[in-house]
Amino acid sequence: MDGANVLDDGLPAARLFSQGYSYTYDDVIFLPHYIDFPTDAVSLSTKLSRHVALATPCVASPMDTVTESSMAAAMASLGAIGIIHSNNAASQQASLVRLAKSHKIPFNHDLVFKSPAESILSSEEFLSAPCIFVTESGAQNSKLLGTVQKPDWDRLADKETRISDYMRNFSISLPAGYSFEDVAGYLAKNELEVVPLVRGNGEMGEEVVNLVTIDDIERIRGFPKLGLPSLGSDGEFLVGASIGTRESDKERLEHLVKAGVNVVVLDSSQGNSIYQIEMIKYAKKTYPELDLIGGNVVTTYQAQNLIQAGVDGLRVGMGSGSICTTQEVCAVGRGQATAVYKVASLAAQNGVPVIADGGISNSGHIVKALTLGASTVMMGSFLAGSNEAPGTYEYQGSHRVKKYRGMGSLEAMTKGSDARYLGDKAKLKIAQGVVGAVADKGSVLKFIPYTMQAVKQGFQDLGASSLQSAHDLLRSCVLRLEVRTGAAQFEGGIHGLISYEKKSF
Ligand SMILES: NC(=O)C1=CN([C@@H]2O[C@H](COP(=O)(O)OP(=O)(O)OC[C@H]3O[C@@H](n4cnc5c(N)ncnc54)[C@H](O)[C@@H]3O)[C@@H](O)[C@H]2O)C=CC1
Ligand SMILES: O=c1[nH]c(=O)c2[nH+]cn([C@@H]3O[C@H](COP(=O)(O)O)[C@@H](O)[C@H]3O)c2[nH]1
Ligand SMILES: [K+]
User: Fold this and answer.
1) pTM over the 0.80 mark
2) Same-domain status, 340 and 390
3) Where, in this chain's numbering, is NAD(+) bound (predicted)?
């Protein structure tokens, strides 16, 4: 065989994706290429949108069971980003953005605030954090007076006792701007178990935004390190937020911009609409400095319209999400591998980064999405069930789970009806998503770094040391793919064993 024939193996992407089939990640497989660098030489740094750069190509989806402040802060601390959902009042969404941005280190406690005149009747109040904060009005943004510690509360004979009678007066706090090592050093030096972080320069009376315990320090130290955090020019965490395309979303957008949001996603299942195009034009005119991501799209025609309207990024995927029923309900959508490849091919010619949204359930899917042309992957179910996802853990039999639901599920639509479907109350609502539960996955601070290491190994096998290199190899037809038959997919999975334990890291 001469050299030319040796390389002529498998199909170039352009040919594979022009056969009239809708392929998804599991349908296709990359042929390995040539390794001439170590795994650690792979850089996954990327762009979310024209002007927003990330060290880690992961995005937390704007869903109310995935991304609020805790997820957004954790993702930013990993060099990734979270998009805060809009299934709430605009002022609530803006304060979630502000809260995430006010952190320097990720946090894991849902802080509880009470006023001195209240009583604590149930031990459940201590479930989400090791102490309860006492502020003048009982709200987070009011003057801090003291704390209630669980052991002090346990000792109370009469649980109706007013908090002011037994709270501990408060003496120590640190500025929220302190780095992880600053806080760790302070706790160790002063032999403290816990310290609150407050806005401003750490003075008493400032608003509490975070709580760090010795256990948090140990836990975070045990996690693998992953590149640089995502910081904006203001020195704060990069945080995104979603909006809809109704008239009322213009006011929502104003709240978000005032809160310092770094990028905005127009959240719709079918982005190629007059409503979205008008919103893009309005937002670009009103806030020319703000990056705007349009979508969702799955075809080059849809993408072209949004690019012409002025988007800085595109979100790709229709019906591919784990909780999505859109393809079944509306008969529209596309296999996710085809959608990402087609849209990214056009978007790249216009310098517009693409987010591959939905259908990610393992690191291999991330490698495929990024190599097929996406600049980032957006994930819902992969991040749901983590410590940082909103909601509390419950038990289903012996499984510890958290709720995960589609934003088009009846439950989510009902919750958001005031905000999203304002004026639509008389219309019949049709669900395009389901409500489910996912297993406890622990902290994203642990499993995202491991997942990214696996992605780097995939890139090494492809001979691509960066996302740009993968895209170049694909478009120059050096990287080849094949469609996997059902039997090949079966063979590619675990098979033929009586039993096994699957432990990924
Ligand atoms: N990626 C996917 O495959 C899917 C995602 N979803 C998620 O579910 C949520 C809801 O999605 P959608 O129902 O597509 O939301 P949407 O807000 O885009 O659309 C809801 C309805 O409102 C209409 N609408 C929007 N703006 C309007 C305006 N200014 N005037 C009049 N009518 C207007 C739309 O045409 C549509 O009928 C989103 O979070 C979305 O991401 C839902 C289905 C599929
Ligand atoms: O058809 C749908 N009905 C819904 O109710 C729904 N809610 C979210 N999404 C989309 O699914 C993505 C998350 O998908 P994964 O769980 O697979 O990561 C998300 O990022 C969305 O694009 C929906 N799609
Ligand atoms: K689906």
Assistant:
1) yes
2) yes
3) 267-269, 317-319
